[in-house]
Write a structure and sequence with these properties.
The protein is an alpha/beta fold. It has a single domain, classed as 3-Layer(aba) Sandwich (Rossmann fold), CATH 3.40.50. It is built from seven helices and six strands, in the order βαββαβααβαβαα. A six-stranded mixed sheet has the order 2-3-1-4-5-6, with helices on both faces. The protein is globular and about 75 Å long.
Length: 222
């Protein structure tokens, strides 16, 4: 056989499929939700690829992003599921669909637009949907995330930082103000999420499960 010839498979032989081996130790599924135009997809792009685009349109269905980090010499693969804003928080969406989206979730980012107070007022309703229809674990880590901090100004019609942080503190959530435009605060918020999941004793058994993202998609979205 010459050096350029490919090996052949004889009749009756079956090539063994190479077993997939994950390049991480733990996999954490997190979700991001909030009102339309709060910048969820831009946050995802800034976190995972350090990109920003003004051309993003409202998400239809579900989009995914992944990024790896390291804690205590262990590699963590964090998945971020970015859903259509109409899936979480609106009437008429089948409960099984919401439950599938929230299946095996360790953390949730609830996003509002700092310049639009109504998007903050809707946060409790979206959280209630995650808990009642999504049936998320009671220890699921929550970050209340105010986006567009680059547009903050003194006075005017905007979400008060102290009020938003007080809401987070009262409910035992984390709080962050970020800017998808300039990237400020985003990486720190996601590091906070991963560390919080890592530190949660009730997740010790389940968080060790590793799987391919495609397997999760195929099993939850037939």
């Amino acid at each position: 056989m010459s050096n350029t010839e490919e090996p052949t498979v004889e009749a009756g032989q079956v090539e063994e499929e190479e077993e997939w081996v994950p390049d991480y130790d733990f996999c954490y599924k997190t979700i991001i939700t909030g009102d339309p135009s709060t910048g969820k997809s831009q946050i995802s792009a800034r976190w995972s690829r350090d990109e920003f685009s003004e051309d993003y349109t409202t998400t239809v269905g579900v989009e995914f992003a992944t990024k790896k980090s390291e804690i205590d010499s262990k590699v963590i693969s964090q998945q971020l599921w970015d859903t259509s804003p109409h899936m979480i928080g609106e009437e008429g969406i089948p409960v099984p669909l919401i439950h599938r989206y929230c299946f095996n979730v360790f953390g949730a980012f609830l996003v509002y637009d700092i310049t639009k107070p109504d998007t903050f007022k809707n946060i409790p309703e979206r959280l209630d949907v995650l808990r009642t229809k999504g049936d998320i674990h009671p220890k699921t880590k929550i970050i209340i995330m105010g986006n567009k901090s680059d547009l903050k100004k003194d006075g005017g019609d905007q979400v008060d930082t102290a009020e938003a942080k007080a809401y987070a503190d009262e409910n035992g959530f984390f709080f962050a103000e970020v800017s998808a435009l300039d990237g400020s605060g985003i990486q720190d918020a996601f590091k906070t999420m991963v560390q919080a999941i890592w530190d949660e004793p009730e997740f010790d058994g389940s968080k060790s499960k590793t799987y391919e993202l495609r397997d999760e998609i195929e099993s939850q979205w037939p």
